[in-house]
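Let's inspect a concrete specimen:
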Amino acid sequence: MTRFLIALLPFLFCVTLCAETPSCLYWEGGRRCEIFIKDTVLPETYTRQFFVYKRNLSDGNVSSLLKRDSLYRINNPFVAELPMKRLHYPRVDTVEGTPYLFFFYEREPSHVSVMNTEIVAAMLSLSDGRCYELYSKGRRVNVKLRTSSLSSDYVFLCFSQSASDSANAYVLNYLKTQVEKTGFVKPISDLDLKSVKNYGLNWNFLNGGGRMEKRGKIEFPFYKEPFAPLKVSVFGVRILESERYKVVAFPYGDVLAYDKRSNSYFVVWAMESLQRDDYSASLCWYGDGVSMLLMKGVFNLSEFVVDLNSGSLQYLKKEK
């Protein structure tokens, strides 16, 4: 039985991953053709190959139109949250007299952490084979949007957009319009940064990218309403309390605080990383025992002191 399963693995990895093959029909010079997309895993490298094919329904001849190989770790012709039937993709659109195959796909470049991904809107010319792509880089998150009445929305938050070099202005505007129609890909400008639900993103916008090390200071986002996690009892949570502050540190999570004097809540630490560090185990007061926090991680052995009054950041030991 074990030998049979081992022998079956290459076959399972080589079959198309999706139960349904994305496809559409169109006419080319009086001939009826089918465009279909395949997404296949290579068992030797565990990477995917992403193909776009054209089949002539008159004679059954199949030709390859587009290929994405192991340059990308993942190429997926399905973006789960984008309803293909409502958005009508893949489809053939005629733009300025040229037929284009329009479709979405998802990719994860090998040089980007698994926290981020890309949703790509693509137009493949069926006349000269040139492919124009608009890359929306970001991640799936539950956030509070300024324009939504819901307490939170599950969206793909787009941090940046870029287009393939050859995309002209007309094609680029067309692709941007299609991305907006999804209702799922949202720009950062749609975020309600005043909402406590977005505190982690807000903290990283203020302090990420090495900004706090350069200025020697952490910018604390302040809120009048409490953080939901402060109401939850979690095993391993560390709580420190002084005459002015109450600090709650979650294992491999965030460090949140309450200022008794101003009756406000603020974020001390919410660094997003592929391997989140744990500051809860060693967190303790430093110096006056009222407002100075000593922080040391498990993976990053740097030691630093954070002043809750001013946000100033002082390194006692910095990991090289």
Residues 4-19 have pLDDT under 50 and may be disordered. The helical segments are 2-14, 84-87, 169-182, 199-207, 211-215.
